[in-house]
Write a structure and sequence with these properties.
This protein is an alpha/beta fold and about 500 residues long. It is built from 16 helices and 21 strands. Bound molecules: ligand NA7.
Length: about 500
């Protein structure tokens, strides 16, 4: 089927009249915007529900927010950044990087802010979109770059509204609330809870960390880059490129990914030994150590990288509460055993609804097929990119893609390379509709599920990686296999409707 590709790649960007809508101006949407402009398309709009770009890095501003991927690897491959201040980038620096990059590539000029797409309907060979404020638009191609973890998950704890202090989800951090010298409760021990506890342990009069499930902690150092180092990165593009593709880090990512898909490999046992040693050697009090010891395998939940969490929880102001929460009362958190933790602030580090993706947007595909119905059991997409009956709609960081302790920017760039080749089919004027075939999705999905159950994510713990049936929703194969899959679409997996045919169909439905 390479013939299909050869015939169309040469004309990319020719059909200047093709209209693109990108939904979401986070890392992936900005990438799509840059790439479409660079390909020569001029009819491109990004819709963003908020008043700024940034996605995750705009929404999350909690104290201690840090990416667990090294700074230089957490950049677009084409836009290295010599100015990162430290090995792991603080959230605010990442936000500033995306803002700078958006302006540099002119994407800021094509974003419509404060416009949330609420409806996206395929009719007569085009996508008809509507925003919450009532704006309507039509697109030939829609790129959904709506993010993965963007809908906060609030816990079902009674009495939250009765709390007399300040209570908020960590993705809605209220910066008007003073912290120093006060009493805070942090509910949740994912990456977010761990980072907040680490950042606040010395600032609070009292910090109670409510832990339903302990976490394995991977030690990591987080040094600052010196002025000399940053100057060297500025002066030497080759050095900067080397930092982006630092061989030791890349080898670690590959080893880690291979370990995820082979839970009994020596690499996974090595990871388990490192986190176990970290716990044994870092926590002095045997009672606290046992409270912090998980009873599931390392990396089953997303592994937490932290340079200072174990130090933080041993500080005098910090208490790790492992009992069950009964309810929230005006003065604080009441435990099932009757204990009341009196607090001024409660931060809900309880994560996100990881199965939402494009939703709550209402998406209706060919023939009136509703995405909510198609995804009723769980979200799924062929190669994480395309859904049958939803032609010319492609996803970045959609369901069943790789997630883990590595850069989602790298993942999105590879996905874009693949999507670009699907767009080329439409751009060629030869095909009017491009979407994965039902058969291809079924085969992909059943192979994926079988493999996913065997990954470390399926080794017996609760996490946001799991779907409603308890199966890991992630890409279950090696990183290499992902790169190979993204290098070129298997066109036989696609239902390609010739432009003439699609136009004739839409003419029929017009009448
Ligand atoms: P996560 O990783 O989903 O963690 C959520 C945490 O909240 C986790 O410890 C949960 O415990 C806990 N939780 C959820 N509901 C409750 C209730 N009702 N009571 C007590 N504890 C609760 O979210 P994060 O924001 O930390 O991280 C998300 C991702 O963002 C992270 O993996 C990175 O990719 C970036 P549980 O483990 O379910 O017992």
């Amino acid at each position: 089927m390479t013939g299909i590709r050869d015939g169309v790649m040469s004309v990319l960007g020719k059909r200047q009249d093709l209209r693109f809508v990108v939904i979401g101006a986070g890392m992936a949407g900005i990438l799509a915007g840059i790439k479409l402009l660079q390909a020569g398309y001029r009819n491109v709009t990004l819709y963003e529900k908020a008043d700024r770009i940034g996605g995750t890095w705009r929404e999350n501003t909690y104290p201690g927010l840090t990416c667990d991927v090294p700074s230089h690897s957490y950049t677009y491959s084409f836009e290295p950044n010599p100015d990162w201040t430290r090995y792991l980038p603080p959230g605010a620096e990442i936000q500033a990087y995306f803002e700078r990059t958006t302006r540099k590539y002119g994407v800021d000029k094509i974003i419509r802010f404060n416009e949330e797409i609420i409806r996206c309907e395929y009719q007569q060979r085009q996508w008809h979109l509507e925003t919450r404020s009532g704006i309507r638009d039509i697109a030939d191609v829609v790129v959904a770059a709506t993010g993965v973890l963007h809908v906060p998950r609030y816990p079902a704890i009674d009495g939250m509204e009765s709390f007399s202090g300040d209570l908020f989800h960590t993705a809605r951090w209220d910066h008007s609330v003073p912290l120093d010298g006060r009493r805070i409760g942090v509910i949740g021990t994912g990456s977010t809870g761990v980072q907040i506890v680490s950042a606040l342990s010395e600032r609070m009069q009292k910090l109670v960390h409510f832990q339903r499930t302990p976490q394995w902690i991977m030690p990591v150092e987080n040094p600052f880059f010196s002025e000399e180092q940053k100057q060297a990165f500025r002066d030497d593009p080759e050095l900067l490129k080397y930092m982006q593709n630092e061989p030791e880090y890349l080898a670690n990512v590959e080893r880690f990914n291979n370990a995820i898909v082979e839970p009994d490999s020596p690499a996974m046992h090595e990871i388990e030994a490192i986190v176990r040693d970290n716990l044994e050697n870092s926590v002095d009090d045997p009672v606290l150590r046992e409270k912090l010891r998980p009873n599931y395998r390392a990396a089953c939940k997303r592994l937490i990288y932290s340079p200072d969490f174990y130090q933080a929880v041993q500080r005098p102001a910090v208490e790790v509460e492992t009992g069950a929460i009964d309810r929230i009362e005006p003065k604080g958190v009441r435990m099932k055993d009757g204990t009341l933790h009196e607090l001024d602030i409660i931060a809900l580090a309880t994560g996100f609804q990881a199965d939402q993706f494009m939703r709550p947007m209402n998406v209706t595909g060919r023939g009136g097929v509703e995405l909510n119905d198609v995804w009723a059991a769980r979200p799924r997409a062929y190669m994480a990119i395309s859904i049958p009956e939803f032609p010319n709609l492609f996803m970045l960081n959609g369901p069943n893609g790789p997630v883990g302790n590595f850069s989602l920017i790298d993942i999105a760039e590879h996905q874009w390379h693949y999507i670009e080749q699907l767009i080329a089919l439409i751009d060629s004027g030869k095909y009017g509709e491009v979407s994965a075939s039902k058969e291809a999705l079924e085969v992909f999905d059943s192979e994926r599920i079988a493999a996913a159950k065997r990954t470390i994510f399926g080794s017996g713990c609760q996490s946001w990686y799991l779907d409603a049936e308890g199966v890991p929703a992630t890409w279950p194969w090696s990183q290499q296999r992902f790169y190979e899959a993204m290098s070129q679409p298997d066109y036989t997996a696609y239902q390609l409707v010739a432009l003439a045919e699609a136009t004739a169909d839409s003419a029929v439905s017009d009448t």
